[in-house]
Amino acid sequence: MEKLIYLDNSATSFPKPDFVYDFMNDFYRTKGVSPGRTGFDAAIETEEMVTDTRKMLTELFNGDGDFNRLTFSYNASDSLNMIMQGLAEKGDHVVTTMLEHNSVLRPLYHMTQSGLIETTYVPFNKLTGYVDPQDIKAAIKSNTKFVIVNHCSNVIGTVQPITEIGKICKEAGVYFVVDGSQSAGAVNVDMQKMNIDAYIFTGHKCLMGPTGIGGSYVMKDVPVRYTRFGGTGVRSAQLTHLDEFPYRLECGTLNLLGVAGLNAGVRWIKENGIEKIHTEEMRLWDKLRNGVQSIENVTTYCALDKENKNPVLSLNIKGFESGDVGTILDVDYNIACRTGLQCAPKVHEIIGTDKMHGTVRLSIGPFNTEEHIDRAIEGIREISGIR
Questions:
Q1: Which domains occur in the chain, in start order?
Q2: What are the tens digits of pLDDT across the range 235-264?
Q3: What are phi and psi of 184, to 5 degrees?
């Protein structure tokens, strides 16, 4: 593990900062009790940490100021299900894109197949990787309830024109939901400026937290119904679930260890600076891009330049299955990457890799180095020369 070159940060960032590991360990050993259920000191201090995390994330995403509307869940998939199913009603129309992850595609598919909603999938430019906001506008109908867009593709790394799409949604009077799984902690997010009504995040990627924690921020006057019912530690005699946030989208005991790790991760990001981290990652990405694009028989996808990108590069080597390339990189070079369809099959339909068993995806994080990139380029060059 000490020699592992980890280039699968789009799946889960690794390693985490030592600060995150240390804070999680210390906090859980000394204050790992249920928050908000009683009045003893440890419970109060635990609740303060949870509230502090809500406040930091509300500020990070520039929500409308009410930190209680920042709710926690298992991960982005969990919150996306709650938001979409909590918004959709019989006869609604939903607009989404071909860039989406299965965490969006599958809930929409099931709601469509059940006859609850109808769904339109807007394509993206197969060379550049971007959705045209005007195509979103053209897809909106009189019964469109919401538009849901992946802020940043986990396959090709393109950061979509969210501000322009948000303006279109606001003018059309439809809700705008953004899947921020790959953007939270990676690029600046301003929900008010971007007209985002619900922003969904996960903790284990660019926010540098552990797995098993995520959530959403829902702006005022967005009618998300609760779809789960349970204990909240508040007004226990009431038989119906509570309407107010955060309880509307939270029930049961929180993943306290996950919230603590997320708290530390956000503090680490704020200290180091999102833009500074992103700039260095993209510098390494550009080195990787230029290196592999100079290799005969290597094809990259939607990697014309580094503008409006996250450090994610998809490629294939002529004559090789993507899975075989991933295995060789792992076994012979100790390089960890992701191969296949990356849970985003419609992306591969557009870029033409769906029948090729997907791509080899290399994704860079804050702890990658020049040496890692050099080694990855060298490995891909040597593999491409095998005949």
A1: 5-16+273-384 (3.90.1150.10), 18-271 (3.40.640.10)
A2: 887 878 888 889 899 998 899 999 999 999
A3: -65, 115
